[in-house]
Specification:
Length: about 260
């Protein structure tokens, strides 16, 4: 069985368990490609309520929760814990990358699906993880690369991890997604189309193969390797018929 079929089975198993046992169930963290697979299943999952969350609104890696207050009669938080990773002595700390943090965590034998986004702020990093492995990480992660670190649980709503958004405006031939992608990446239209073929374009967590899709207000556009954007709409038009597209760009320094 291929990886996509295995993922679909896991998602459906979690949905069925929630429906039959009247409990909340959860997947582990899904990357954006896995979320796209989930998006293709939504019609088959209409027998159960679900929502996704990764720790904050900027998180790319997301869990799926099956169940709701309306169907179960109570609310339950996602089993996500936020861990702050800080150097023991800041002035001697290296400038660590997402790869450094992830490598140290994987060396502890932790599977990637147990870990959400890793957001880097200066010499600190903020890690979202499945709650049941949080204590293991805190007890066992003591160095990243050559830097001695300490780990502490922190409030999942910590303002340090709140997404930062920048208003930007680009000139585009139209609201077609391939035109917008070309403007945002500063590539030619034909080069932008190659990004669709390489499966690097996502709208609202669904991989986009249709490069003629018309952007709609509040669409969340992810261009792998470039960034994440919320489309706000189009504005003034130039004399040559080109239009200005407005976006809010996530500028939180992070690794996925």
């Amino acid at each position: 069985m291929d990886n996509e079929s295995l993922l679909k089975n896991k998602i459906m198993d979690a949905a069925n368990r929630s429906f039959r046992q009247n409990i909340y169930t959860y997947t582990n963290f899904l990357d954006i490609n896995e979320q796209s697979v989930f998006a293709q299943m939504k019609n088959a999952l209409n027998f159960v309520a679900f929502k996704t969350y990764g720790g904050n609104d900027a998180c790319e890696r997301q869990m799926i929760q099956f169940g709701s207050y309306e169907t179960l009669g109570y609310e339950e938080e996602f089993p996500i814990t936020l861990i702050k990773i800080s150097p023991l002595i800041e002035k001697y700390a290296e400038s660590l990358s997402h790869r450094d943090y992830l490598g140290a965590l994987m060396n502890l034998g932790i599977k990637r699906e147990m870990l959400g986004d890793i957001n880097i702020k200066g010499k600190d990093a903020y890690l979202y993880c499945v709650s049941h492995i949080a204590d293991f990480i805190i007890d066992n992660l003591s160095t990243v690369k050559h830097t001695h670190i300490q780990c502490t649980k922190t409030d999942i709503n910590d303002i340090e991890c709140s997404p930062e958004l920048e208003d930007i405006e680009v000139l585009s031939a139209s609201e077609r997604i391939d035109a917008a992608v070309a403007s945002l990446t500063k590539l030619s239209r034909s080069q932008a189309v190659e990004l669709f073929r390489a499966r690097k374009i996502f709208i609202n967590s669904r991989q986009m193969e249709n490069n003629s899709y018309q952007l709609k207000a509040n669409d969340i556009l992810v261009i792998r390797g470039t960034g994440k954007f919320i489309y706000q709409g189009c504005g003034r038009e130039t004399k040559k018929g080109r239009i200005y597209l407005s976006f809010r760009k996530y500028i939180l320094k992070k690794g996925l």
